[in-house]
Description:
It catalyses: orotidine 5'-phosphate + H(+) = UMP + CO2. The protein contains 11 helices and 7 strands. The protein has about 230 residues and is of the alpha/beta class. It has a single domain, classed as TIM Barrel.
Amino acid sequence: MALDFNTREATLGFVDKLKPEMCRLKIGKELFTSCGPGIVEELVSRGFDVFLDLKFHDIPNTTAGAVVAAAKLGVWMVNVHVSGGRKMMRECVARLSELKTAGVEVPLLIGVTVLTSMDRHDLEELGLDVGPQEQVKRLAQLAKECGLDGVVCSAQEAQMLKVELGDGFLLVTPGIRPEFATKDDQNRVMTPAEAVSSGVDYMVIGRPITKASEPLKVLQMIQAEIAGK
Ligand SMILES: O=C(O)c1cc(=O)[nH]c(=O)n1[C@@H]1O[C@H](COP(=O)(O)O)[C@@H](O)[C@H]1O
């Protein structure tokens, strides 16, 4: 569940309706910048698995330091941009591995490929004359080579990546839109049922639930859709 709120009150007001067995929670740039690491610790202490989605992208030492800081907050998953390159990702993996050897529980390390809001035209403007599928495949292969646990991509690329990279490499997919929801700023979208049959491991869903007048009802509808009921 993507908690894109900007106050502690709004966040906790929403989370009070949830239990850890219902969903994991994702804290992204808006909430973290508004409320700081305290909100991460609060949600971890309530027993939730927390995905700290800050999409780190910097020189190797700085990025790895940030990933280590995330691990010390007790999060379950953290992400970096694959476009930060091999040396950056390798340094993150090495520093997490040192922590693990020292007995600290470390988060899953996930690489962001091509943002789900982007299409071929956006890539072209960045000087990349390839379609999203091809670019996602290239970045996901690099992430796997560097020892990451998986990637963020759209569910539209999931089937292809499972074939290319195997079952053990995790696919985390935002851009999930049930039939009844609006696309908002997302571009490469899929419904929850389509995403499940494409083999995704974790779906990230925000506004279709958080902006609904009855969020719990929508969550239950999505869970029923996933279970094929
Ligand atoms: O890393 C992410 O979580 C992420 C990557 C990506 O390519 N696209 C993407 O939408 N996200 C995040 O996933 C969430 C999607 O939220 P909704 O569009 O509201 O369902 C947001 O919090 C985004 O920051």
